[in-house]
Amino acid sequence: MHQARQALELAQPGASVLLVTGAAASATAVERTKGFLETVKDRFSVHTVDGRWSAARARKALSEWIRLGSAAEGAVRLVVCQNDAMASGAREALAEQAAATRDQGGTAYLLELAPQDGMEEELRGLFDRGGDYGKLTAAAVALQREADGQSEAAARRRLRKLRRDHAALVAIDYFPGAGQATAARAIEVAEVAVNRRFSPDEPAGAAGTIEHLDPAAFRGRTWATRARLWVDRVASAWLIQRFIDPQARFVWLADLATRAPEGVGFDFDGAAFTHVGERVTFEVLMASFGLEGDPGLARLAELVHYLDAGGLPVAEAAGFEAILAGYRQRCPDDDHLLAAMGPVLDALYTTGRNGLTHS
Known about the structure:
Blueprint: H1 2-10, E1 16-21, H2 27-40, E2 45-50, H3 55-67, E3 76-81, H4 84-103, H5 119-126, H6 130-146, H7 152-171, H8 178-198, E4 222-226, H9 231-244, E5 249-253, E6 264-265, H10 281-288, H11 295-309, H12 317-330, H13 334-353
Parallel strand pairs: 1-2, 1-3, 4-5, 4-6
Helix pairs in contact: 1-2, 3-4, 6-7, 6-8, 7-8, 9-10, 9-13, 11-13, 12-13
């Protein structure tokens, strides 16, 4: 139980932990493993290797685990051993891995910390991210204040950078405190300010499953979405036109209360197709009509998701956003904007389908 409590103090929720156990047939090892898993359940992702109580076996087991690439399944934040001998063997395996990394031109450090009074407080001081979170919070507050004076593309670039910087900081915040939550809340408020300025009717993610539908039942329909198209809506309209309803007619709604009753709505709250869970409307349409196996659309979905909701950066995103912002200024209405962006999306689709994308 002592090791489990130490692990709870040292690793943040959701971390990946490697447990080096005694012999699998040993009642002591079974009992200790059971106690550890019960104590940290729902807190960590735990992997186990059999160290059989010995330094040599623990060294071999951990080296094999690293060699097979098991460590790549998730960045391991903590290695826990059930006795000192196995801890010594694990240290040797990690030292060998560090040396191999340096031999290949990489950088690796192996730091040894002996238990001592006040060690946790000292570590918290060394890894204190409060200043960094403070800067993030200040940047988020600045975006809230300045959103009205920004272009949509510029404001959303700043918002994505805030999300990305916060995620990177959380990944190395081993002793999370109030600063992490304060920065996260400030970024949420900044996102609300940006959406209120540029997308006042931006849909919230609905709960539920996505129904699989027959495209034939949606041919020749009128489709309705919010006016002043941006990333998710323009890409979704293109997807409908190219893959679902080639005869689609579109209505661009300046006021959602004026929506035509016969129109198939998309990308607003209460629409037939809108955000579900973490999926944006483009992804929901793909899933609804069985298009997820298309590699070109899959790549486009990554781009749309990143620009609309954040996540993993996509190389083409900045260029696509700049082109869309330029056309939105030049085009007199959303019909012309969709016509102008169609060839851009066609080209990106072809690139993704043929595997020509470069990161």
